[in-house]
Amino acid sequence: MILWTRIFRLIMENTALKLRVAECEKVIAINQELKEEIQEIKKQNEVLKATCQNYESSLRSFQAKVQDRIADRAEGGLGDNKLKELRN
Q1: Which domain does 32 fall in, by range?
Q2: pTM for the complete prediction?
Q3: Which residues form a coiled coil (predicted)?
Q4: For the chain, first and last CA: distance in Å?
């Protein structure tokens, strides 16, 4: 009788462990999906950073042109940037 009780207890423990393993496997799958999503977000973030840098560069160039034109009007002639542009 003691042997059967012990066997029954071991079967119950084994079943409980199998259920925990199944839950862990689900969590592992979810974690993998999240890791893939994070990688995709990182890639998109890098693209956005590059785009932002391009916009910032364009904005600086535009600001320089605006400043040069303001200087042109103030001086009544051509600014340094316009002269360089015309020489090239």
Answers
A1: 2-87
A2: 0.56
A3: 24-65
A4: 102
